[in-house]
Amino acid sequence: MVRRTQAVEQLASLRLTPNFSTWRPCDQVEAAVGWKLAVERHNGPTALILSRQNLAQVERTPDQVKEIARGGYVLKDSGGKPDIILIATGSEMEITLQAAEKLAGEGRNVRVVSLPSTDIFDAQDEEYRESVLPSNVAARVAVEAGIADYWYKYVGLKGAIVGMTGYGESAPADKLFPFFGFTAENIVAKAHKVLGVKGA
């Protein structure tokens, strides 16, 4: 791998820019919704942060497709009160869903939240935000290939983040993801720590 300076803080800085809307879709459906809202927005710019990778398409109900426009929504849910919530954006959604399957296989109620546009989600009413990220579920893990610090506002001090803490590298994605810990296994390990699993 070749070390080079990369803008790992790009997403966080865009999201913190006033009157600037940022989308990081996990597949073509979220990208289409983000594009539509960007075209229809007349009071400020919008950035769509897309991936060079081939991304798996996620099945959704019609209601879930509608909720994409709210910036964040429940993509997968085991039902009942979640034991843990996994939050992801963009290309990391695939490994997050894999991690959710592994955790569900352990008998845990797992919720996966897609948060393609944090600024739009933050602008929703409290009732909707609470329905997606209930405040009585402190066990949370956020997953994004960007600077980790931004995500503490969603996971809190008791949560965990699979993110970047330094500059990136240059190599194929299948080598970079494991190098930086972006694997389903690492997400599960973080989840175990948050849940207080012995030996985690």
Automatic annotation (TrEMBL):
Keywords for the protein's UniProt record, in alphabetical order: Magnesium, Metal-binding, Thiamine pyrophosphate, Transferase
GO cellular component term, pick one: cytosol
GO biological process: pentose-phosphate shunt
Pfam families: Transket_pyr, Transketolase_C_1
EC number(s) on file: 2.2.1.1
Cofactor(s) of this protein: thiamine diphosphate; Mg(2+)
Family affiliation: Belongs to the transketolase family.
Subunit structure and binding partners: Homodimer.
Annotated protein name in UniProt: transketolase
Organism the protein comes from: Escherichia coli
